[in-house]
Amino acid sequence: MDQQSAQQELAFVKKVIEDSRKLLIYDGKDMIVWGGLVTLGMLLMFGKFHFEIGPPVYLTWIVLIGAGWLYSMWRGMKMKNTHRVTTFSGKMMGTIWLATGICMTIVGFGFTASGLIAGWAINPVMSLFMGLAYFSSATVLGMRYLYVAGFSWWVAALVMAFWTGPHTFLIFAALMITFHMIPGIIFYRKWKTEYLPSIGLTAE
Amino acid sequence: MTDFDYQQLDDIIHSRIRLAIMALLVSVDEAEFTFIREKTQATDGNLSVHLKKLEDAGYISVKKSFINRKPTSSYRITTKGHKAFEIYVKRLEKLLKK
Questions:
Q1: Which residue of B has its CA nearest to A84?
Q2: Coil/strand/helix, residue A118
Q3: pLDDT tens string A76-86
C-alpha cells in the first residue's frame, strides 16, 4: 500500500464517521407536541388567573400532561419497533428529557399538592428545569442555539421570580414556542430532508 | 512515494466494505442490517459474508430479534473491535507521516 491509498482509506473512514455522526435521528415530534400542550395550558392559565375564565387548574394540567405522557409512551413503543439505528447522543437526549419530564411532573403535581411550592413560584422553577435540559442537550448535540435556549430559560426564571403575576404564563408560553416548538420544527425538517433520504425512506 | 508494509494492517478490516462497516459502527451505538446495507450500498449476500467475518473475529456482535414478527439483526462494535479499528487507523496515519 502506498501513501496515496492510505490517504484515500483515511479520507473514506473520516467521511463514513462524519456522515454517521451528522445523522440527525431525532425527529422533533415530541418537542412539537409537548410544546403545543404546555403552551395551550399556559394560555388557559392566563385566562383563568387574569380574566377568571377557563377550566379548573388541576384538571387542565392533568389532561394536558397526561396526554403528553401518553403520547411519549406510544412513541417510545413505536420507535422501539421501527428504529434501525441507535446513537449514543440519541440515548443521552432521551435520558435528559425523560429525567426532566419526570422532575417537572413531580414538582408540578406533587410539590404543589403538598404546598411546598405554591403561587407564582411554579413557573420560575419549571423554567429552571427547562434551562437545565436545554443546556445539557446543547452539549450533547453541539448546537449553539440550544445553549442560547438554556440561558434564555434561566434568565426568564429570574425575571419571573421577581416579576410575578399572570403575565408569567404568557412569558412561559412565548418561551415554549420560541425555544421548544420552533427547535422541534427545525429538528423535524432536518430529519425529513436529511435523515430519511439517507436511509432511502420518505416521511409518512 | 514510500511503500508501506501492508502486512502490518489488520486483514480483517483491510477491505473497503469491512472498513465501511467498522467506521459506521464506531460512530453509532447499534445499527440494523438494513441500515448498514443502505449505508454501505452492498448486496444482502455480500454484506452478510463481511459481517460474519467481522463477527467471527470478535470485532462486532450481533443481536437477533423479532420486530412485528419479522426477524432483524442488530450489530454493534465490541471492545476488541474498537481497539482493532483504532490500531488500523493509527497505522494508516503513521504511513502518511512517513
A1: B32
A2: coil
A3: 888 776 667 77
Which residues in B lie closer than 8 A to residue A21 (C-beta atoms)?
27
pTM over 0.80: no
Mark yes or no for CB contact B3/A2 under 8 Å: yes
Please state, in angstroms and rounded to a whole number, the distance separating the CA atoms of residues A70 and A12.
43
> Domain residue spans in chain A?
28-188
Closest C-alpha to B20, from A15, A8, A25, A23: A15
For the segment A121-139, the average pLDDT, to the nearest whole number, is 94
Instruction: Looking at mean pLDDT, say which of A18-27, A135-144, A181-190, B76-85 comes out highest.
Output: B76-85
Set of chain A residues whose Cβ sits within 8 Å of the Cβ of B29: 86-88, 90-91
The DSSP code sequence of B57-86 is TTSEEEEEEEETTEEEEEEEE-HHHHHHHH
| DSSP-assigned letter for residue A31 | H
Residue A180, amino acid: H
Select from B26, B32, B95 the Cβ nearest to the Cβ of A3: B95
Report whether B11 contacts B85 (CB < 8 A).
Answer: no
Long-range contacts of residues A138-141, Cβ cutoff 8 Å, at least 24 apart: A140/A89, A140/A92, A140/A93, A140/A96, A141/A89, A141/A93
